[in-house]
């Protein structure tokens, strides 16, 4: 039997999860490669910005966002994929939009933590499914 290279990419897998009785969120696993690249890029940018300041100096660059705001934007762009049951201020259903999702993540710590936990869980489930599939071969 010849040795054959095959590429098996971990696909963290999309999952619909219940935030509460009326709200369901479609979440990708935190292993999503786009999310990981974005997270690395934010970290590098933060390091570059920090290097501008001398030891003991504290400052903020114009337009700079907090680490939490950056993380909310990444989660909204790459991890939360859709939702149902999310309402606007008037109680009307709100169609999924990454910008609105980032605002919701930034303003609601319970939702932020929910997305982190469920994204991690989705990744664990997908890894277990892949391991099971590999064992069956």
Task: Report on this structure.
The chain is mostly helical and 137 residues long. It has one domain (15-53, 65-136). Helix content is 51%, strand content 9%. It is built from four helices and three strands. It has helices spanning 33-51, 67-79, 98-107, 109-136, and strands at residues 15-18, 24-27, 80-84. Strands 1-2-3 form a three-stranded antiparallel β-sheet. Strand 1 and strand 2 (24-27) form a beta hairpin. Helix 1 (33-51) packs antiparallel against helix 2, helix 2 packs across helix 3 and helix 3 (98-107) packs across helix 4 (109-136). The longest helix is centred in the last third of the chain and has 28 residues, at 109-136. The radius of gyration is 19 Å and the shape is flat. The relative contact order is 0.20.
